[in-house]
């Protein structure tokens, strides 16, 4: 397929393990690794960003909590501001033998604390508004991340973060391109509201008309990009377009479906990055490392990047467990004409288990909260059509 370019940043996800493995393995030895580390650390790491939600101390020997954030900057709509499009808590237990990924619905009703530095008074709102509150009036990305971290910390009963990351769409697209795409399994039919082609001219463009930021009718002569159930080798633009969708999913699971697909994308990224054809190719590794600074802004909480790398280097995609809050079902509440998502009791218990570093036992007692692997869902009875892994999701 023909590659494509988007201007609007969108969460596509960071996995620290991915960058850590690249840095360590591509170093070829302690000296080479140190030189690479010094070079790329300056491009990736930033100070601050966690505010009162920062974990104390300068060690990650115990349990590790990371806040992973994707933002929608709305560069063409200043009035919309900058909001957190996706929010994930990545928890690594003290044993450092697993990674649990928990997505927080962006419409979750929360109490956002005041942020005097940006003259934000605080109040009850959707959790994705916290980033905007800290971003405004000169706060920038660091201020937005700080207020979001403090808001998630309050939601999770005082959870502290050892680090955080912001990822942008344009930079991440280059990173996936450098890897040569990813292998993704589509677990429900998805129609793209952002990508389509004119059936007469072949030109690309948005396939739907919009009203109140929602897709309505197809535009004349436009055919939308469709992702059918099955497993495919996707180019960067396909994978990122797929995990962006929430409006026209076959299961009508909206943000919960999108969260699941984004979590699956993380695992696909790690699996591809650590595959023999990529990690042993010095040209590919160098190209990917050069793209890391464009894709990832990592707030390391004053912990040296070397500590992060050597602590997390043993983790791989098979040790990642993706979790769904509210069992993937909508729990909506309307207040003052605004619709919110609220977390059920089991979701709150999961957050409490993260704070106590007891996620493993909690998941064992609640297996229904684990998202099925996409390859299992895509090849389950009745999940047709299933195509060859080497076939694209669709053709122009």
From TrEMBL:
Ranges for domain Cell envelope-related transcriptional attenuator: 83-274
Pfam families named in the record: LytR_cpsA_psr (PF03816)
Domain of life: Bacteria
Compositionally biased region (Polar residues): 385-396
InterPro entries recorded: LytR/CpsA/Psr_CW_biosynth (IPR050922), LytR_CpsA_psr (IPR004474)
Chain residue ranges for the region called Disordered: 375-396
PANTHER family recorded: POLYISOPRENYL-TEICHOIC ACID--PEPTIDOGLYCAN TEICHOIC ACID TRANSFERASE TAGU
Assigned protein family: Belongs to the LytR/CpsA/Psr (LCP) family.
Protein's name in the database: LCP family protein
Annotated organism of origin: Dactylosporangium aurantiacum
């Amino acid at each position: 397929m023909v590659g494509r370019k988007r201007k609007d940043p969108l969460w596509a996800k960071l996995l620290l393990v991915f960058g850590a493995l690249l840095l360590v393995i591509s170093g070829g030895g302690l000296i080479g690794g140190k030189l690479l580390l010094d070079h790329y650390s300056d491009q990736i790491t930033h100070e601050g960003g966690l505010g009162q939600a920062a974990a104390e101390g300068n060690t990650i020997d115990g349990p590790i909590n990371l806040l992973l954030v994707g933002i929608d900057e709305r560069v063409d709509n200043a009035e919309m501001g900058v909001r957190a499009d996706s929010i994930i808590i990545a928890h690594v237990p003290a044993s450092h033998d697993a990674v649990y990924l928990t997505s927080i619905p962006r419409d979750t009703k929360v109490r956002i604390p005041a942020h005097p530095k940006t003259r934000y008074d605080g109040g009850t709102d959707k959790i994705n508004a916290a980033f905007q509150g800290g971003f405004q009036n000169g706060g920038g990305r660091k201020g937005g991340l700080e207020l979001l971290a403090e808001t998630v910390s309050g939601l999770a009963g005082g959870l502290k973060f050892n680090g955080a990351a912001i990822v942008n769409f344009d930079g991440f697209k280059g990173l996936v391109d450098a890897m040569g795409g990813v292998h993704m399994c589509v677990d429900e039919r998805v129609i793209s509201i952002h990508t389509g082609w004119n059936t007469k001219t072949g030109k690309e463009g948005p396939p739907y008309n919009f009203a109140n930021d929602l897709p309505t009718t197809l535009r004349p002569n436009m055919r939308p990009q469709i992702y059918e159930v099955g497993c495919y080798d996707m180019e960067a633009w396909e994978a990122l377009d797929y995990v962006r969708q929430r409006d026209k999913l076959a299961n009508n699971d909206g943000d919960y479906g999108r969260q699941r697909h984004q979590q699956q994308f993380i695992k696909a990224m790690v699996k591809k990055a650590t595959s023999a054809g990529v990690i042993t190719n010095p040209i590919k590794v160098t190209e990917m490392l050069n793209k890391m600074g464009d894709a990832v802004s990592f707030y390391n909480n004053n912990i040296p990047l070397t500590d992060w790398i050597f602590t997390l280097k043993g983790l791989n995609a098979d040790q990642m467990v993706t979790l769904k809050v509210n069992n993937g079902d909508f729990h909506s509440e309307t207040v003052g004409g605004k619709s919110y998502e609220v977390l059920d009791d089991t979701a709150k218990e999961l957050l409490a288990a993260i704070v106590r570093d007891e996620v493993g036992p909690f998941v064992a007692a609640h297996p229904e909260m684990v998202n099925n692997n996409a390859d299992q869902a895509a090849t389950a009875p009745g999940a047709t059509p299933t195509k060859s892994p080497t076939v694209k999701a669709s053709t122009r």
